[in-house]
Amino acid sequence: DTAVSQTPKYLVTQMGNDKSIKCEQNLGHDTMYWYKQDSKKFLKIMFSYNNKELIINETVPNRFSPKSPDKAHLNLHINSLELGDSAVYFCASSQQSGPNTGELFFGEGSRLTVL
Amino acid sequence: DQQVKQNSPSLSVQEGRISILNCDYTNSMFDYFLWYKKYPAEGPTFLISISSIKDKNEDGRFTVFLNKSAKHLSLHIVPSQPGDSAVYFCAASAGGGYQKVTFGTGTKLQVIP
After folding, report:
1. Which of A76, A97, A111, B21 is the most exposed place for a label (fewest CB within 10 A)?
2. pLDDT tens digits for A61-90?
């Protein structure tokens, strides 16, 4: 039973399209994240939600809109896709209570290719 | 501005020998340091961490060393095994709030049987 699951795992689409990636965690964690790994393998945080509330937004273009219907789900919607959006997007979760240890639980990633 | 740096993109080590992966950071506010391991087509998984109040943390074959004055940490794997072949990400977080974890670009370790 996967702890953090993302769908779809692969997504190929044309420039200008709108697409969504879904994420669900069954760990009972309070906080969920979206990370982007670009072609240089740099893993960078995009957003973080705690109990459905946006707490981190790392100057991501507003074409990217996260939505958290409940604390177990965090979806990422991308409008007007551009070539530079091609990357692997990782969802992650963590338990916020307790010390800030930085331990994150990641999904398997969703590889987005924009043609 | 890359606050966590892994200057070696790859490393090859013979099975049974020690693997040493290095990481440098620039942000003095970081107080927790972590290593994540990533296999192809999988997400990163947490491996080991160290608080800034310590200089060493050990977990089985894995040991992380922290040198705060040099803003440097390293991961030692002894003995290295072929199953350790993966990409290793160094990461850091600053306390006092929500967990914003900053990652390095990773070092690909190959353990040769």
Report:
1. A97
2. 899 999 999 989 999 999 999 999 999 999
